[in-house]
Structure prediction request, 72 residues.
Amino acid sequence: MYRLAVRPEFRRRGVARRLVEAAHQAFAQWGARRITVLVDTDRPWALSFWQAVGYRPDPKISRFARTAARTP
Prediction:
């Protein structure tokens, strides 16, 4: 899963958890055996949420990124 967002006025009502549960059901129907999420480490609330819905850091995966150079 790449992006999950809930409007501020609807947060803390279980919306994100229900969205993730629906995604899990869809992935199971498609035969997915593994789900990966990308979480910015500077958002502790997001890290806590993903851990609360059963995700754990994967020490076998490193993510690499590069910012593209700007052209004039």
